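Check my protein:
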Amino acid sequence: MADVPSIALTDVHGFYDDSHVLHGLSLEVARGEAVSIIGRNGAGKTTTMRAIMGLLDKRSGSIRVKGHEVIAAPPERIARLGIGYVPEERGIYASLDVTDNLMLPPRLNNNGTSLEDIYKLFPNLLERRHSQGTRLSGGEQQMLAFARVLRTGADLFLLDEPTEGLAPVIVQQICEVIVGMKAKGNTIVLVEQNFHVASLIADRHYIMEHGRIIDCIGRAELTTKADRITAALGI
């Protein structure tokens, strides 16, 4: 099974109600690989993540996760295949404290990060473990969102704008955590407007425009295709 892609999307169309957002999207992510999806706002990056997780009103085409076709599967079944999803909005439960938020998602296996190790990664969460979600800063909420999926034992991570709006010191900490996740052999799909961050993590960069992948740039091509990336990001 080692040669089976962790994720393979083929001719995927995605809709919000009657709004057609993804237009024949195709991409592939190998096991243990980190890829980024880059493009201007509205290109369909977040919609791609939501399509993989089964969170769109309508999908067609083929989405395979670890060899399993999930185009018609409900989100809970898709998550059980070992996906840890950190959405752009983070999904922190405001009425629950840090510990309850951490413990809420079920463990998928025994490979998840222990609470002790989570608190070593994110000392802020240890200090705030009895604080409600509404009392956390944006950076602390993002730490909690990461900690929650690490605890589950997932080995395939969808990370949607993980550093957006965070202070530089928190961005550095989040980057170190993602690099550590990759070093352990996890598969990572990253949507990230900060291309410096994406370039530190991703092996390849898919460029997205109008709901389609229009190019793929490998790490070794970054220097020669810098203009292409600048244009794709609208910088």
Notes: Strands lie at 7-16, 19-29, 34-38, 58-65, 68-69, 83-86, 156-160, 187-191, 204-209, 212-218.
